[in-house]
Specification:
Layout lengths: L2 E4 L5 E4 L1 E6 L3 H12 L3 E7 L3 H11 L5 E2 L6 H4 L5
Parallel strand pairs: 3-4, 4-5
Antiparallel strand pairs: 1-2
Length: 83
């Protein structure tokens, strides 16, 4: 899942992918588990209106990820490249 970006000289730069999840039900928690195990992916935010439920699931998974109650994930601040 590495993304090749190019520097000014055209040289590829390898970087990890910032990922946000929209919805944190069964499938969202499965995705979180998978992303947390990938060295080249970084889970940077979760959008789910059920913040208490999402927080409990994250705690159970041992993950520390910001939770947003709406889709206002601040894409530009978190530099999200995948949802």
């Amino acid at each position: 899942m590495f993304v090749a970006l190019h520097s000014g000289e055209g040289t590829p730069i390898m970087t990890s992918l910032n990922i946000a999840l929209v919805g944190f039900g069964f499938m969202g928690s499965m995705h979180a588990q998978i992303y947390s195990q990938l060295a080249d992916a970084r889970l940077v935010g979760i959008a789910d209106p059920r913040t208490d439920s999402a927080r409990a699931k994250l705690q159970k998974l041992g993950l520390d990820v910001p939770i947003y109650g709406s889709l206002r994930l601040r894409f530009h601040v978190l530099r999200i490249r995948g949802v």
